[in-house]
Design goal:
By secondary structure, the protein is α/β, with parallel strands linked by helices.
């Protein structure tokens, strides 16, 4: 708690990493990229005129919702207490002036706000010179979080750090001014792992499906499928990180997704900016031993998922078709990696079955929207579409059951199973399971992803065990 009387004293506060648990340069870049895929080229052209010009251009192209930014509550409370004690407060940032004005107006705790103006990048020594000219040598206290702020702290009467870096704190302690250290929540390995969404890797088990349906359980084949699984997991995590960076504002407006690591500020956006390409490169390097065709399949997967993140997810119906295709491509990749020819029955079943699950995913989102009377940003659906999406999910699921029923009488099944008629029991289980999934979603008890929900759901687990038992029974002579 600050002294009771701070009348006449000025507190200047940095924005990125101090007032907020994020960086507005990355915020505006990813927001602009979500709307315009040419953003990197435009940013590079702006950078040729200087960092301040680039920041201004990105601000013009972006649509960042400053009301849902991850603010550091300890800093907000500190600034509020300073002001209530009679002191003056100023937001001074290297971000563009337009952002500084919006954030200052939103919080209502600053007497003035200063930012970069498109020509001057208000950072480090330039920020120090600006504050010294405005308030005089030692005429202000300053709160910051990086080594760039040393040039500002050296001119201040009081240095307030918001960092866990012992090295930076030690350098500030040697400046000779009054020092106060605040400790932000550190970035945890758990948060980084969560950003990779390892629970979503369950979908990649589909690469093993060609192996099991063809009864090709040789060690070499299983090893190839396992490598394909690892590759898909790395590339998929790269896509998940990219998608989270592109969906920041939408996620922050969502009751559950706002807790995701990047949206909540648990991980700096800079981490995600290098993490996404690193995972992608690692995935493709591991894909090389599986052959050129598998690499091309993975390239197609990545291009499709990127297009989905940038554009296709905002196109009604198309987004569901793409999601269904991304499930099916995992099965196709498993066949390519192991050299196992894929049955047309398997591909047909997967297209209808996964279209149903993708529609259930949208049904869950719309059910939440209707119940909360909100609209999810970045989607083309409206509340009145809920009944239609529910019908699509049900119909496509039932068609997949029909394909399964026809498959049980095919020559392929008769060649693989001594008692193929046993597989008809799978149709009954799937008929029940699909109906229940739609029903559960209708009652708003569905996880955002139906696959993840199914893995945790006891009834779904029992259905899986029953299906496994039926398959085993069909193989017994």
């Amino acid at each position: 708690m600050k002294p009771a009387n701070l009348k006449g004293r000025v507190l200047a506060v940095d924005l990125d990493g101090t007032l907020i648990r994020t960086d507005m340069l990355f915020e505006t870049f990813w927001s602009a990229l979500a709307h315009n895929w040419t953003t990197p080229f435009i940013a590079a052209a702006g950078l040729a005129k200087g960092r301040a010009a680039m920041k201004q251009r990105l601000c013009e192209m972006s649509d960042v919702d400053i009301t849902v930014l991850p603010y550091n509550e300890d800093v907000v409370n500190y600034v509020r207490a300073w002001r209530e004690a009679g002191g003056r407060t100023a937001l001074v940032t290297a971000s563009d002036q337009s952002l500084a004005d919006k954030i200052s107006a939103h919080l209502g705790i600053f007497d003035e706000a200063h930012g970069s103006d498109g020509a001057t990048n208000l950072k480090a020594s330039r920020k120090g010179a600006f504050l010294e000219e405005r308030y005089g040598q030692g005429g202000f206290a300053y709160m910051g979080d990086t080594t760039a702020d040393l040039a500002v702290w050296s001119k201040s009467a009081q240095a307030i750090t918001h960092t866990n870096s012992k090295a930076l704190r030690a350098r500030v302690d040697k400046l000779g001014c009054e020092v106060e250290h605040l400790s932000p929540e550190p970035v945890s390995a758990k948060a980084v792992l969560k950003a990779l969404r390892p629970h979503q890797w369950l979908k990649n088990v589909l690469v093993f499906l060609p192996v099991f349906t063809a009864h090709a359980l040789q060690l070499a084949t299983l090893a190839q499928a396992l490598m394909a699984f690892v590759v898909f997991s790395l590339v998929a995590s790269s896509v998940y990180v990219l998608n989270d960076l592109l969906d920041l504002s939408a996620d922050r407006s969502h009751p559950r997704k706002r807790k995701r690591p990047f949206a909540s500020g648990a991980i700096p956006l800079a981490y995600g900016t290098w993490l996404a390409p690193s995972l992608l490169i690692a995935g493709f390097l591991l894909a090389l031993p599986l052959g050129l065709n598998f690499v091309l399949v993975m390239l197609g997967y990545y291009v499709t998922t990127t297009a989905y993140s940038l554009y296709l997810k905002r196109r009604i119906i198309i987004d569901i078709c793409v999601l269904a295709g991304l499930y099916t491509i995992r099965i196709f990749a498993g066949g390519v990696a192991t050299g196992i020819p894929l049955s047309i029955w398997l591909l047909a079943f997967s297209v209808f079955f996964f279209f149903s699950l993708a529609a259930v995913k949208r049904q869950a989102e719309l059910a939440d929207e209707v119940a909360s009377n909100t609209v999810t940003k970045g989607r083309g659906y409206r509340g009145e579409d809920l009944q239609l999406i529910t019908s699509m999910a049900t119909a496509s699921g039932y068609v997949s059951v029909l394909v399964m029923a026809l498959y049980t009488n095919s020559p392929e099944v008769k060649a693989l199973y001594p008692r193929p008629y046993m597989l008809l029991g799978i149709c009954l289980v799937l008929f029940f399971w699909i109906s229940r999934m739609v029903f559960v979603t209708h009652r708003r008890r569905m996880h955002d992803d139906p696959v993840v929900f199914a893995v945790k759901d006891r009834v779904s687990q029992i259905c899986g065990v029953v299906i496994g038992a039926i398959v085993v029974a069909g193989t017994i002579p």
